[in-house]
Amino acid sequence: MGGKWPGVNAVSETSIEITFSYRGVRCRERIKLQPTPANLKRVAQHRAAVLEAIALGTFDYTVTFPDSTRARMFAERLGQVETVEDYLCAWFDQQSLTLKASTLHDYRMTIFNHLIPAFGSMRLSDLKRPVIRNWCNTLTAGNKRIANMLSPLRIALNDAVDDEMIESNPLHDWTYRRKTAPRRIDDVDPLSSSEQTSILANLEGAARNLVQFAFWTGLRTSELIALEWKDIDWIRSVARINKAKTAHAKEPETPKTRAGAREVKLLPMALQALDAQKEHSLLHPSGLIWLNPRSNLPWKGPNGIRKSIWLPALERAGVRYRRPYQTRHTYASMMLSAGEAPMWVAVQMGHADWTMIARVYGRWLPDASPQAGLKANATFGQDAVITNGC
């Protein structure tokens, strides 16, 4: 009897049920009427009005179906998050279940130190693009920093749209940009061969081994302190890089990108450092290669190396200060200056392609030699000349 009217069904002798979707939820509501043909038609018209109100955004569940449990559910769902602060706090708690510790730390700093002070008292539905743009205009940070600050807000608002708490994301398909002076390419400041020699001469034992290994593998400091002896393939002379230990993580975490998980070829100077390190940590219960020489315990985070090994060594060697990350830049500059293929260097360093290498380390890419192209000409050129001659 209800087949004539889609979404309308007689479910008992005294009630008619209508079915519709609201906010992504399939809803069924009963109306106390006998399922006569006239009543079924009337209920179908009522359902059509409900669908139209939903489409126009004017549907109020609690008004239309005041006694419905669904009405109470939607009322609570819409009322539980009234301000940006309420929503961001709840959203951050959810992210803490899945995000890596380092990412979670960055989100925490941004949300509670910047976003909530700026927008926390606003209703979530009132957070519009002009408000966000005006806030960005007051910041003294550069475009990249502002983009990083807006990143968690963008993701959170996407989730709010998916949960139907707001109709649209004000940050969708929009990036804040202000006119800035040309940006200096990174802080690439590699150490020269003589500086490397001076630094290593002022280190001994496990500390010297660690720094020498860093110079000749290009690993990030967080990757160094998570490297285990089982990650070394002595037969193929490679190190399997599959984790990193950041300052905010209790345990090593997997790389953030697929390219970050890689095999790094161990050159002779890196193998030499590993061989010398065996007496210091090969039998250590942690299985880690690089330990804090002072305590013989695992490093708690990358910053410890800077304070206890790197900075004192630079001071003793009389070498101008650079942060430990420059060992990575030093590796890249050495490889490229020696003529190694940029794509090979990119893979060694964990980049998805060599565009990063070209952008950051372009000045160390050797110019084409006068003989460039002659090998290809010798291989393919003669056949082309003969063909053209025919």
Written account of the structure:
α4 (84-95) runs antiparallel to α5 (101-119) and α9 (205-215) packs antiparallel against α11 (268-281). The termini are far apart. The protein has helices at 37-56, 61-64, 69-79, 84-95, 101-119, 129-138, 143-162, 193-201, 205-215, 221-224, 268-281, 303-317, 326-337, 342-349, 355-361, 374-389, and strands at 8-10, 16-22, 25-31, 232-233, 238-241, 262-265, 291-292, 297-298. It is mostly helical and 390 residues long. It has 16 helices and 8 strands. It folds into 3 domains: 8-78, no CATH class; 84-162; 193-364, Orthogonal Bundle (hpI Integrase, Chain A), CATH 1.10.443. It is 49% helix and 8% strand. The chain has a 3-stranded antiparallel β-sheet with strand order 1-2-3, covered by helices on one side. It has a 3-stranded antiparallel β-sheet with strand order 4-5-6. A hairpin with a 5-residue loop joins β1 (8-10) and β2.
What are the salient characteristics of this protein?
hpI Integrase, Chain A, 3 domains, 8% strand, disordered C terminus
Question: Summary?
Answer:
This protein is mainly alpha-helical and 390 residues long.
Percentage of residues in helical conformation: 40-55%
Within the largest sheet, what's the order of strands?
A: 1-2-3
The CATH homologous superfamily of the largest domain is termed: Intergrase catalytic core
Summed up, the domain count is: 3
Would you list the SSEs in sequence order as H and E? EEEHHHHHHHHHHEEEHEEHHHHH
Structural class: mainly alpha
CATH class of the largest domain equals Mainly Alpha
- Under the CATH scheme, which architecture of the largest domain would be assigned? Orthogonal Bundle
Query: Regarding quaternary structure, how should these chains be classified?
Result: single chain
Question: Total strand count, please?
Answer: 8
CATH topology of the largest domain: hpI Integrase, Chain A
Strand content: 5-15%
| First-last Cα distance | 85 Å
**What is the count of helical runs?**
16
Major β-sheet profile: 3 strands, antiparallel
Which stretches are low in confidence, meaning pLDDT under 50 for 5 or more residues running? 384-390
Keywords: DNA integration, DNA recombination, DNA-binding
InterPro entries: CB, DNA_brk_join_enz, Integrase-like_cat_sf, Integrase_catalytic, Integrase_recombinase_N, Integrase_SAM-like_N, Min27-like_integrase_DNA_bind, Phage_Integrase
Family: Belongs to the 'phage' integrase family.
Domain Tyr recombinase: 186-376
